[in-house]
Amino acid sequence: MFECKSRALLPVTCLLVASACGGGGGSAPAATPPIATTPPPPPPTSIDLTSDTGDYIGAGQSYSYTQADAVITVTVSDAQVSIQVAGNESWSADFILPNTYTQFEVGTYTNLARYPVHDPAVGGLSWTGEGRGCNTLTGTLTVEEVVYEGMTLVGFDLQFEQYCEGETVALRGDIHWDSDDATAPPGPVVSPPAGLWSPPDGATPVTGNFVYLESDSGDYIGAGQDYSYTSANARITVNSGNAHFSVSIDGDERWNGDFQAMSVIDFVEAGFYDDLQRYPFHNPVKGGLSWSGEGRGCNRLTGWFMVDSVTYNGNTLAAVDLRFEQHCEGGGPALHGAIRWDVDDDTSAPGPVVPAPAGLWEPPEGATPTTSNYVYLESDVGDYIGAGQTNLYTSADAVFTVTSTAAHFKIRVDGDDEWKGSFEGMDSLLRLEVGYYGDLERHPFHNPVKGGLSWTGEGRGCNTLTGWFVVDSVTYDGDILSAVDLRFEQHCEGSGPALKGEIHWDANDTTAAPGPDPTPPAGLWEPLPGITPATGNYIYIESDIGDWVGQGQNYLYTPLDSIITASQPMLGGVQISVHGDELWSGNFEPMNLLTLLEAGYYGDVQQFPTQNPTKAGLNWSGEGRACGAITGWLMVDSVTYSGSTVMAIDLRFEQSCDGVAMLHGEIHWDANDTTAAPGPVLPIPAGLWEPTPGVVPTTGNYVYLESDSGDFIGRGENYLYTQADSTLSFGTQGARLTVTVAGDENWRSDFEGMESIPQLEVGYYGDLQGHPFHNPAKGGLSWSGEGRGCNTLTGWFAVDSVTYDGNILSAIDLRFEQHCDGGPALNGEIHWDASDNTAPAGPVLPIPAGLWAPAPGITPATGNYVYLESDIGDWVGQGANYLYDDNEFSVTAPGAQLDVDVGGAERWSGIFQAMNTLNYLEAGYYGNLQRYPLHNAVIGGLSWTGEGRGCNQLSGWFAIDSVTYNGVILTGIDLRFEQSCDGGPPLNGEMHWRE
Question: Which helix (H) or strand (E) holds 457?
Fold first, then answer.
């Protein structure tokens, strides 16, 4: 037996030669010489995959690809080859040699891990596809042959195998690649198979564009129905580009189709395209197709299409005749289709029916006014939109907003109810015309060649609808709609009950709603005598039992205890804001015919801003409470303006939330009222908290905190911070002082004086709430930190002394007390003087004796290294020891920080940060450290993490035994460290590095 093997790069011709043997005593006829045969050479580029049973990636199958049936893309970068396969399946592969190689070389490479998380010194590989990939893998790569032209890789033979997740089943591959391989896939079959599906005789029009669909019983897409569309009953749109064209149908149904030829041709050609998959997830060398619509599409499909004829005008598709068949999810039932399209087809849909059919609905005689614009609605019992009601709206009690473009008319009704109506003519019209528009669906999801309609409102609308409208008359001024009379009927969700309506609108109608009544009704609510102040601005609120907003309480606010403002954020109306122990806001809006509030009575008032615009609106809300719906009235007893700016107002109002109980209010406000809240109390009351003698330093800046047991913020502890152990920051803005403490703990506080003073003054600030939600007429405070803060608080602060240099705070002594949610107290004292220059100490020298160091002989005598020693139970180091040489780690030193990155068999990252008073690292001991970057900045911090492990909290130290710089560039360092995660066993380390 003669066996011949050849590589793809160099085809080999093998000849089999036979010899004849003669026997004694006779002669045999001469043997016929065998005919020399030349077996076809293997393709220069091919990929063969074999997957063991149980292999996740290949799913136990075998696969074979050449450039005749797949797009094979090879990318080379130094010693890495990447391969993409786009065929009946899609694959992606990477093969990278060890980082000591600069190009692909012959050899066998073992112990490979998954690219790109492999060890660079070993190399890696990865074969993935069809949505499948290994989390971890081991593998082998054998490069049998490589061909370079100069520095360019032009061919190779390789084999590989990979094992996912430590399994014993493999995916194996044999890959041959030649950059000169000119193999190309075939184009469409010119002579199609006999018996391809065609539409039945008479099913399609003789002339004009059409799309015909025929769906088998059980076909998911077409739902077993037949559909026929022409330019007279649907919008048929075709778009093309290169060897692809798409078809969209916008008719009583909506469909989209895509037809993609094979990648080897530039334009769609006549012929048969078979063995297709779903576009755009198809095999590019075969082509693809997809027909979907009505919310239905295939996940996977098989099929074909047949281009019977096709015409291009330059690069633009001009005409096509096509048939297709598709099967969803490998199923038997088919969807068939035939398409004929010519760009020159000028068929269009008919316009509205004139005259309109007799007997269509119209309002009863006398139900609508003889003059003025109106909208009349009549809803059958069971109609969801109109709720079985009959409603009439005119320009005297509602606002009509009309817009019109082309053959579209839209009207909005803003009255006691809100409605929107849309009426769309067929897309063949340039504007609405008199006539009947029937067989309509919901706008804007209607058939565009028929038109559509939609009437919605009060939060109700149809999901689907059927109906009609009639334009009885319509007038345009140029292109602008100026008048229309229209009737309509719609049925939601195919139901019987109807909503019917008639619209009469003329742009010249001048009917308007009435203004406020100058003669108010007798007996309107007003406060009892003596309840409100005789002079000065005030807000008085009186809430009935059961009222949601006022909670059945009465409230009185004046400038002595609250900030009261009046503004005009909305056109014509006035907004009143109260910022006191409670927060309130009131809006009072006149009817739309007024530009400003006027004196008078406004009745039948609804909730601003959703009120009927022809009537007034109001809304009083606050403390997180507001009405869902409001009824009420407002009475403007007097109002004064300077131009359009309100200067003074006297107003009473009544509102009922959802018709339950009443809230009344009276407002007296004058811009010229100069009453202001008092400043801090002097002298400071005796008996306020202060620190026990000797607890705080006699000199230097400090912050002292004393927390009662049960206090949420301070947790029952006492804290003292100075500039020797913490960063104390002080900032002011007006009468506000902000203090931040960055030490072993982190705190932030705000002390805000009353709005009436420009700067903090000596004195007592009492009855305070939490800043910034405090009463600005009194001031506020807040002390928070360590992730803890009050939801609500009460408290006080006292400024014992304060000095400013101009507007700049230069010194302050302050005490405070706060209670979170009515609980135990947190007290504090602050002493700060800008002239205090106390600073924290640097690292300790000499370094304390007895600190951890590696045992003799464990670390190299020469060369750079990182050594780690982890105790049993240490989370980060897992109780192991590690040693890395110069090639496995890198060092950077920004300022007084050292960053170490280790990229050996394990990956680690270390950060060593000196105290913030240093510009560069210095030799010495850095102790009492916390986790970087959550450390105390004046002490320093550290963090050693890796392999997905790090401390939540840590304590530790590092010691720099020696350090050298060349200017600002670190040139050498010897460092030891120790860290304990969450109080557990330590991880120690030593580093020796020279540039």
Answer: strand 452-457
| Lookup: tokens for 826 | 């947190």
Contact call for residues 41 and 9 (beta carbons, < 8 A): no
Query: Hey, what amino acid is at 500?
Result: K
Which tokens in the block code for residue 603?
A: 């009745």
* Pairwise CA distance, residues 720 & 798, whole Å: 19
Alpha-carbon gap, residue 244 to 963, rounded angstroms: 68
Interval 653-688: pLDDT, tens? 999 999 999 999 999 999 999 999 999 999 999 999
Please, what's the b/e burial string for 565-591 (b: 16 or more CB within 10 A of its CB; e: otherwise)?
ebeeeeebbbbbbbbbeeebebbbbbb
- Count Cβ atoms below 10 Å from residue 696 Cβ, excluding itself: 17
CA distances to 692, 706, 716, 817, 981 from 720, in Å = 13, 9, 14, 16, 26
Q: Residue 112: which of 103, 101, 104, 120 has the closest Cα?
A: 120
pLDDT per position as a tens digit, 413-463 = 999 999 999 999 999 999 999 999 999 999 999 999 999 999 999 999 999
Q: Are 395 and 416 in contact (CB under 8 A)?
A: no
- Between the alpha carbon of residue 668 and those of residues 427, 595, 652, the distances in Å are 59, 21, 9
Distances (CA, A) of 582 to 168, 533, 585, 670, 777: 72, 19, 10, 21, 12
Strand duo 793-805 + 763-770: pairing: antiparallel
DSSP conformational letter for 249: E
CA distances from 479 to 403, 405, 476, 482, 985 (A): 12, 8, 6, 9, 84
3-state class of 377 per DSSP?
Answer: strand
What does the buried/exposed string (b/e) look like for 35-60 if buried means 16 or more CB atoms within 10 Å of the residue's CB? eeeeeeebbbbbbebbbeeebbbbee
Model pTM score: 0.66
Contact 884, 921 (CB under 8 A): no
Separation between Cα atoms, residue 809 and residue 753, nearest integer Å: 14
